[in-house]
Amino acid sequence: MTLSLTATPREARGKQNASLRESGTIPAVVYGPKLESQSISLNAGEFSKALKEAGESTIIKLTGIGKDAEVLIHDVDIDPVSGEIRHADLYAIEGDKVLHLEVTLEFVGESPAVKQGAVITKVLHDLEIEVLPKDIPQHITVDISSLVNVDDAIHVKDIVLPPGVKTKVDPESIVAIASEVEEETEEAPQAIDMAAIEVEKKGKTETEEAAE
């Protein structure tokens, strides 16, 4: 099913942006190689739903800007306190142009190394890829069942990329690794040097007697 959003043209003004958010809409901008940058507003509920379902690697049909466009959610500004979406950037793609974008890695399977007491550390959570719009995957699967023993690792070169997808990330970069759990050791309390205390006490006594 193709996701779609309806845009409303707007003027790019800061104060207007605040009032837009209060009315349940989000200020945004759409641009691309063959599309001049346009300030728009989007329904907050519809955009939040599209962001949740599409993320930043699914093509969305954008209407309401004259000629419909196929876009990707390129960037989202979220308030760190309230979690409210403050602004969004949409990138209008060209069907025959290779895109450079990051796609989420989805880890599946069970690692036998865990039964040996290992912990699986996921070093990469996204992978930068090159792909035509028609071949964009929603995610890339990484099977951790190959992590059999402690210190086993999955590298970028081990990932099976979907058809039409390439990456220039270093093939030796670690994606996930089975590491041994380090046990915390409590430091033993230092033994009290009774001899030193006696010497200190004796010295103090002799000094006090001399003073008298």
Question: How big is the Rg?
Answer: 30 Å
Shape: extended
SSE sequence, one letter per element:
EHEEHEEEEEEEEEH
Strand content: 35-45%
What is the number of helices? 3
* Rounded mean pLDDT score: 85
Residue stretches low in confidence (pLDDT < 50, at least 5 long) are: none
**Major β-sheet strand ordering:** 1-3-2-6-5-4
Biggest sheet descriptor: 6 strands, mixed, barrel
Sheet/helix structural class: alpha+beta
Distance between the termini: 99 Å
Strand tally: 12
Helix share of residues? 10-25%
Write out key terms for the chains shown.
212 residues; 6-stranded mixed beta barrel; 3-stranded mixed sheet; alpha+beta; 3 helices
Characterise the protein shown here.
The chain has three helices and twelve strands; from the N terminus they run E-H-E-E-H-E-E-E-E-E-E-E-E-E-H. With about 210 residues, the chain is an alpha+beta fold. The strands form three sheets. The chain has a six-stranded mixed beta barrel with strand order 1-3-2-6-5-4. Strands 9-7-10 form a three-stranded mixed beta sheet, with no helix packed on it. The protein has a three-stranded antiparallel beta sheet with strand order 8-12-11, with no helix packed on it. A hairpin with a 2-residue loop joins strand 2 and strand 3. It is extended, with a radius of gyration of 30 Å. The termini are far apart. The model has no long low-confidence stretch (mean pLDDT about 85).
